[in-house]
Specification:
- The protein is α/β, with parallel strands linked by helices and about 240 residues long.
- The relative contact order is 0.15.
- The chain binds pyridoxine-5'-phosphate (PXP).
- The site of pyridoxine-5'-phosphate has 19 residues, from strand 8 and helix 10.
- The site of pyridoxine-5'-phosphate (PXP) has 19 residues, from strand 8 and helix 10.
């Protein structure tokens, strides 16, 4: 079934738990297959430069075994470009990456890095990989994405997730405005980072948003209710807000 708002489940932190012991379980590919069975429309995995969670072998197995689209999150490096071209995921989301950060702490500066990103976007696009840029919800970044000719942007919802009260409402307005500006210019809008059952509703209700990518909360929730149940409940929250 195709949903008007797709759910991409990020399985990185299944690999984080596996790697904490350095053994073969829990297996992120098994989690991906289970998430898809429970209603995920796609699977997202971030192959970080330091391989702290997902490994090269995980990406090879995901590319071979998944029956839903794979979205590879990657830094804008030659190494990651070569890996993307080798495995040809359905989509590649270009994210900023710093070794010292715990997670992807901000969007990529598409405006400041045009010359570095342009050839990468070109090569991925030529390989028919759907390129997306993970950006902050601001007009300057959307305009840079338009100049780069990307088909998709993913809006960073991390700030929205951390704020509350009027500050959260303000950030939600920024997200809505950015989504409208991108869509008006023919760019498909995705969103993600820090989303939970409690805060997903207003983001899912932004009409231009076509896909949410959610990981850390779902993997945590899976400890209590199981991954299938966590994915099903997230789908319900998204559908209810739509
Ligand atoms: N989208 C992007 C581009 C990300 O980098 C991440 C985190 O890896 C997510 C979505 C998912 O964020 P979270 O794990 O907080 O749900």
């Amino acid at each position: 079934m195709t949903h008007s708002l797709r759910l991409g489940v990020n399985i990185d932190h299944v690999a984080t738990v596996r790697n904490a012991r350095g053994c073969g379980y829990p297996d992120p590919v098994r989690a991906a297959l289970l998430a898809a069975e429970a209603g995920a429309d796609g699977i997202t995995a971030h192959l970080r430069e330091d391989r702290r969670h997902i490994t090269d072998e995980d990406i090879a197995r995901l590319a071979a075994e998944l029956t839903v689209p794979l979205n590879l999150e990657m830094a804008a490096t030659d190494e990651m470009l070569a890996i993307a071209l080798r495995h040809r995921p359905h989509a590649a989301c270009i994210v900023p990456e710093k070794r010292e950060e715990r997670t992807t702490e901000g969007g990529i500066d598409a405006a400041g890095q045009h010359d570095r990103l342009a050839p990468l976007v070109g090569e991925l696009g030529a390989a028919r990989i759907r390129v997306s840029l993970f950006i902050e919800p601001d007009a300057r970044q959307i305009e840079a994405a338009i100049r780069l000719g990307v088909p998709v942007v993913e809006l960073h919802t991390g700030r929205y997730a951390e704020l509350d009260g009027e500050a959260r409402s303000e950030e939600l307005r920024r997200l809505s405005d950015a989504a409208a500006l991108a869509a008006k210019n023919g760019i498909e809008v995705h969103a993600g980072h820090g989303l939970t059952f409690d805060n997903v509703g207003p983001i899912a209700a932004i009409p231009q948003v076509r896909e949410l990518n959610i990981g850390h909360f779902l993997v945590g929730e899976a400890l209590f209710v199981g991954l299938g149940e966590a994915v099903r409940r997230m789908r319900e929250e998204m559908d209810a807000a739509r």
